TrEMBL record, chain A:
It comes from Litoribacter ruber. It comes from the Bacteria. It holds the Pfam family GatC. GO terms for molecular function: ATP binding; glutaminyl-tRNA synthase (glutamine-hydrolyzing) activity. Residues 70-95 are annotated as: Disordered. Its EC number is 6.3.5.-. The lineage of its organism: Bacteria, Pseudomonadati, Bacteroidota, Cytophagia, Cytophagales. This is Aspartyl/glutamyl-tRNA(Asn/Gln) amidotransferase subunit C. The keyword ATP-binding applies. Belongs to the GatC family. GO terms for biological process: glutaminyl-tRNAGln biosynthesis via transamidation; regulation of translational fidelity; translation. It is an enzyme of class 6 (ligase). Heterotrimer of A, B and C subunits. The keyword Signal does not apply.
Length: 95, 474
């Protein structure tokens, strides 16, 4: 699968990443190389095989519906790059 | 003189009152300073380790110490310890302080193990050489021009250079077993879900495991039996009972062993590694075990399956690093969207960005079925094959790695060549079964070779017993 410029831009936007020209060129090359390599999977006959979606053999692990505290408000805010007394602060969403 | 090379030795010295925990910690602190150039430790908890040692010495005097009293541990920079910084070797977690302690680490602390510091690794566990790190590369203590392996390179070198008794790493596709092979250690990846992942910074959640580095099998078993088991904070953690692996190391019956033709005949395999692996198989035959060659036609598909699924899971897991709630935030943003994009572009390293991009691609609407669903189907085939084989045979044996430790920069310009380093370790990760790497001699350059043993899910006790048997006769 050859990654073109438009696809790269679209994927980068979805991943919330940006690349300068040189970075975009290298990423396009690397992704194309890796995708060509993983496409080897097309050789495997998977007709009728169910995709596997969980690896743990535990199902429906339930516990008592009891409220407990894991992280306090203060601890939750502790690592914020920008905050006030109650909230995380971010740049303006609406201009 | 080198000392405290095993926990048995430490315990004996403590029992005979030849030493105390404070002296043990000071001994390792001194080694850490002498070997600072290896760059294994990102941060040394000198004060808290010494203070803890004093407390445990008092407990020992009263006969009230936990079963790991005297054990000194390093932890990989992806495991949370309350009140201490954790970075996952990434700029994006600059200045991040853990607000709680990971379950595995807490269980060791509860048994009076002393945490001496956190250890360098590849960013978010993504790498096979410990070169992708904001903390600078880690050197192999045997040859400083060579890599220690990755991603848990710092955890490997810390034990290799005797900077702590044992260490914790994490293994998503070989990140404990491969560096263990490159540094001449015992390294384990448990069954998926055997050890709680609470407090482990996620890379690929359906593959991530916490593993152990040690100089001998018994110490490894001791740590594993302590950290394994159910956990209220990780509902995927298995509720199956955890045997005391370290007391079940006796091995005395003939077993059935399979080796995979495609691994032994792989063109990527270094001849001396092949020779040493075949020697072990020969010896096992002579000792009365059944050793059979088996075909594994899916070998070439294991790595592509692994890379599609892990990059997909990584792209999802790493979406939380957006500059809002913790870690690095760009100073250059002019609105919310540019804050996300610039924070992530400035904060993540190149390999991490590559995997996020790939993962986003294989999960995107137009390509989801062709890549992601396809890989989930092949994963089932590989898992079924491996489990069926392990129902017929007790163990699968193969080399841990195709080569011994390579030089810095050797694979830096070719991501696929770097990925091929994990050729033999990913099968256990894709299948979820446990595996161990033990030393199996050296190559012509004196570099350690690893032998990998796999067993069926939750058969850690059998795996350790067999590894002990092979190590003892090696």
């Amino acid at each position: 699968m050859k990654i073109d410029n438009n696809t790269l831009k679209k994927i980068a936007h979805l991943a919330r990443l940006e690349f300068d020209e040189a970075g975009a060129e290298k990423m396009t090359k690397d992704m194309t190389q890796i995708l060509d390599w993983v496409e080897k999977l097309n050789e495997v006959d998977t007709e009728g095989v169910e995709p596997i979606t969980t690896m743990s053999s535990e199902v429906n692990v339930l516990r008592e519906d009891k409220v407990g505290e894991h992280l306090s408000h203060e601890k939750g805010l502790k690592n914020a790059p920008q905050k006030d007394s109650d909230y995380f602060r971010v740049p303006k969403v609406m201009e | 003189m080198e000392k405290f090379l095993s926990f048995d030795e430490i315990k004996k010295s403590l029992e005979n009152r030849e030493t105390d925990c404070k002296s043990i910690v000071n001994y390792y602190l001194n080694n850490i300073k002498t070997k600072a150039h290896l760059n294994a430790f990102v941060e040394v908890y000198e004060q808290s380790a010494l203070q803890k040692a004093e407390e445990i010495d008092q407990k020992l005097a009263l006969g009230k110490a936990g079963k790991l009293a005297g054990m000194v541990l390093g932890i990989k920079d992806v495991l949370c310890l309350a009140g201490h910084t954790v970075n996952a070797s990434s700029k994006i977690l600059e200045g991040f302080e853990s607000q709680f302690t990971s379950t595995a680490v807490q269980r060791l602390i509860d048994q009076d193990a002393i945490i001496i510091g956190r250890l360098n690794c590849d960013e978010f566990g993504m790498g096979s050489s410990n070169e992708n790190t904001v903390h600078g590369k880690v050197l192999n203590d045997l040859d400083n021009t060579r890599v220690p392996g990755g991603s848990s390179g710092g955890s490997a070198v810390a034990v290799q250079a005797n900077l702590c008794t044992v260490s914790l790493g994490t293994d998503t596709g070989g990140s404990v077993r491969q560096p263990a092979a490159f540094t001449g250690l015992v390294g384990t990846k448990p069954t998926y879900s055997r050890v709680s992942r609470h407090g482990l910074i996620a890379y690929a959640s359906s593959f991530d495991t916490i593993g152990v580095f040690s100089r001998n099998v018994k110490d490894n078993a001791r740590v594993m039996e302590t950290i394994a088991g159910p956990d209220d904070f990780d509902s995927t953690a298995s509720r199956k009972p955890v045997p005391n692996y370290s007391e079940l190391l006796h091995f005395g019956k003939p077993v059935k062993i399979a080796y995979l033709k495609e691994t032994i005949n792989s063109s990527a395999l270094q001849p001396k590694i092949k020779e040493n692996t075949l020697e072990v198989l020969d010896r096992l035959k002579k000792e009365g075990h059944e050793v059979d060659e088996v075909n594994f036609p899916l070998l070439d598909y294991v790595l592509p399956t692994y890379y599609i699924l892990t990059t997909a899971e990584a792209s999802s897991n790493l979406s939380r690093f957006d500059g809002v709630k913790f870690g690095y935030r760009t100073p250059n943003a002019h609105n919310l969207e540019s804050m996300y994009k610039l924070t992530r572009s400035e904060g993540f390293g190149e390999e991490v960005k590559r995997r996020i991009m790939l993962g986003t691609f294989v999960l995107s609407a137009s390509y989801y079925d062709a890549y992601f669903t396809k890989a989930q189907k092949v994963r089932r085939l590989i898992k079924n094959f491996t489990e069926d084989l392990l129902n017929k045979y007790d163990y699968i044996i193969m080399p841990t790695t195709p080569t011994t430790a390579f030089k810095f920069g050797e694979h830096s310009n070719d991501p696929v060549a770097m990925y091929l380093e994990d050729l033999f370790t990913v099968q256990a990760s894709v299948s979820g079964v446990p595996a161990i790497s033990i030393p199996n001699g050296k190559d012509e350059k004196g570099l350690p070779i690893g032998l990998q043993i796999m067993a069926n899910s939750f058969k850690e006790a059998d795996l350790y017993a067999f590894a002990e048997y092979l190590s003892a006769s090696n």
